[in-house]
Here is the input.
Amino acid sequence: MSQSYEQRDLLDIALIRLYRATRDPRRLDKLVERFTPLVRSVVRQYTGRGESADDLLQVGMLALVKALERFDASGGGSFGAYARPTIAGEIKRHFRDHTWAVKVPRSMQELQAKVARAKAVEPGISQVAIAEQLGCSVEDVFEAEIAHDAYRAKSLDFTLPGDGESASPLETMGSRELGYEDVTLRDEIEDALSVLGPRDREVVELRFFDERLQREIGHDIGVSQMQVSRILNRAMDRMREHLEDEPTDDPSVAA
Here is the structure.
C-alpha cells in the first residue's frame, strides 16, 4: 500500500512539473480535476457552519491553484500533504474575514475562539476559571463572549435573550457604517432610532456606529458594563418592535 502512495506522489510531482514547464492551461485543468476530490474532502469538514458548500468549494479550489503554484516540486514529497493544510487555511481565513457581521478586532476574534473551546471542553465553566486558563482578565472573557454574537448577525425577527448583549439589526449595519449607499435602509435605521430616548440612542450609536466597547460606554455615561448591556437589550427590543409594527405598503398584504 505504501508503494502505491509513493507512486501516486511521484506521478503528482511529474504532472506539476510538466504543467510548470509548459504553462499549458489544459494541463492545469487536468491537475485541478485530479485534486478536486481532495478539496471536497477538506470542504466537508467545514460545512454546516453558516457558509454554503458551494462558496467553500470555490475558496478551496482557489487555494488548490495557489498550492499548485507554490509547491516545491524539486524536493519530492507529497503534494497532497502540502495542499490539505493550505486549503484548510484558506477556508479558515474565509470564515475569519467574511463571516463577522460587526468589525471585531482580530485579537478579540482569537480570544473568542479560545473561550469557545474552553466551554466545549468543560461545559458550565465559569468566566473566572476561563480567565485563569487563558491568562487574561474576566472582563476580557466577558467581551469575548459578547464578540460571539457579532458572528453572523441575526435578522430583525431574531428573539433577543433576557440578559447580555446579542445580535441585532444594528450589528448587521456595523460593518457598513462608512457611508450607506442604500437610502431605504438608512431611512429605516433612522426611523428605528427615533423611538429611543436620548440616553438609549446614545448608547446604541456609541456601540454599533462608533464600535465602542461596553466598558468604555459605561465609563463615559457613568454606569456599569452590565447596565450598558441591559440598555442595549432594551433598545434593541424597542427598535425591533417598532419596525415589526410598521404597516406594510404591499397592496397584496393589505388585501
